[in-house]
TrEMBL record:
The lineage of its organism: Bacteria, Pseudomonadati, Bacteroidota, Chitinophagia, Chitinophagales. This is DUF4252 domain-containing protein. It comes from Chitinophaga rhizophila. It comes from the Bacteria.
Length: 165
């Protein structure tokens, strides 16, 4: 009787594991239906990018001197690694991320990323605590300590571009 009970429990445990779809190792779970709402054809993405580049050139031609580059040095894009994105999406209550445009001391426009909740409200929290973080050159320990954080320091494009658009 004990063997039958043990076998039944073992079978139930294995079937529970088999029935649950698991994402492939390294993949972030996603709802394909919700993701599909934001999919655009690559031709539309190329058109959007070209529209931006053309608009930026037109604006530069209307401004005196090199004002646009010196006062608002706009990148074509910025690249963030998966760990920065994962830290944002792993924030408690995060349903997405918001990208703000900022401007650094050199006049370069930079992208600043924050988690947002289901209501679209910014989540202000510690994204990565110092105990769990690697030593990041250029970031003082006090900046990486427990506090409200956002993500920045993406790789600007140009110069670092390998775009398919």
């Amino acid at each position: 009787m004990t063997r039958i009970l043990f076998a039944t429990l073992l079978l139930a445990a294995f079937s529970a594991c088999i029935d649950k779809p698991r994402p492939p190792k390294g993949d972030i779970p996603l709802d394909k239906g919700r993701a599909f709402e934001h999919v655009i054809p690559i031709e539309e993405a190329r058109s959007l990018r070209q529209g931006f580049l053309i608009g930026r050139r037109e604006l530069q031609s209307k401004l005196p001197g090199n004002y646009l580059d010196s006062a608002f040095n706009l990148p074509e894009g910025e690249t963030f690694n998966r760990h920065a994105i994962a830290a944002i999406l792993n924030a408690k209550g995060a349903e997405g991320l918001r990208i703000y445009l900022g401007k650094d001391q050199k006049g370069q426009v930079r992208m600043v990323l924050l988690p947002v909740d289901a209501n679209g409200k910014d989540i202000l929290t510690t994204l990565v605590s110092r105990e769990k973080a690697a030593n990041i050159p250029g970031i003082a320990p006090a900046r990486a300590a427990s506090m409200e954080q956002a993500m920045e320091s993406g790789q600007r494009c140009p110069p670092l571009c390998k775009s398919a658009l």
